Amino acid sequence: MSARSTISACALPAASRIAQRTAGADFADSYSFADPQPETSALQSYLALTAQTPAWMNALMSLRNQVVRWVGLKHLGQLKTLRPGKAWQDYRPGDRVGIFSLSDLHADEVILYDDDKHLRVQVSLYKAEGRIWLSTVVHEHQILGRVYMSVVGPVHKLIVPLMLAQASAKL
């Protein structure tokens, strides 16, 4: 069985905190897979997962950053750009974690976000019952958000499962 086949598209987990943030959302998805490190916190798992971000994903982020600067959107950096030497237990809400800022920090779930003029993205890593759910909720602002998500949404659904399969296989 391939690593990709272990990643399942699914509904946002009902018990997660991010599931409570879908009112008015324009995009939401979730992927689940067996937790390779069930003894760790949600933040530890998120940091471990993003540390394994494939090079091709960082290349896509670089391309995204180059393209969107022409319409005045933020340069986000790369997914695995973490603060060297910062221990997982030193992160607090408001801290930058790669391309996102930390919103909610719980043992079973971490929620990160980014706000820009075109949309608000929230990402959750939720752990329960020996599984991990990586969920995304997007609220679009103005027409630029709708145009952006018309391109990024379909690509997101293709690359996230592939990225998760490759990254989780290394854990």
Description:
This protein has helices spanning 42-51, 55-68, 142-169, and strands at residues 8-10, 27-34, 96-97, 100-105, 109-115, 119-128, 131-140. The protein is of the alpha+beta class and 171 residues long. The protein has a single domain, classed as Alpha-D-Glucose-1,6-Bisphosphate, Chain A, domain 4. The protein has a seven-stranded antiparallel sheet with strand order 1-2-7-6-5-4-3. The longest helix is centred in the C-terminal third of the chain and has 28 residues, at 142-169. The two termini are 17 Å apart.
Structure at a glance:
The chain has 171 residues and is of the alpha+beta class. Helices cover 30% and strands 27% of the residues. The protein is built from 3 helices and 7 strands.
Keywords:
171 residues, alpha+beta, Alpha-D-Glucose-1,6-Bisphosphate, Chain A, domain 4, 7-stranded antiparallel beta sheet, 27% strand, globular, disordered N terminus
List the helices and strands and how they pair.
Layout lengths: L7 E3 L16 E8 L7 H10 L3 H14 L27 E2 L2 E6 L3 E7 L3 E10 L2 E10 L1 H28 L2
Antiparallel strand pairs: 1-2, 2-7, 3-4, 4-5, 5-6, 6-7
Read across the widest sheet, the strand sequence of neighbours is 1-2-7-6-5-4-3
Q: Report the strand count.
A: 7
Compute the number of helices.
3
> Per CATH, what is the topology?
Alpha-D-Glucose-1,6-Bisphosphate, Chain A, domain 4
Low-pLDDT ranges: 1-5
Question: Mean of the pLDDT scores?
Answer: 85
State which percent range the strand residues make up.
25-35%
> Which architecture name does CATH use?
2-Layer Sandwich
**What overall form do the CA principal axes indicate?**
globular
SSE series: EEHHEEEEEH
Helix proportion of residues, in percent?
25-40%
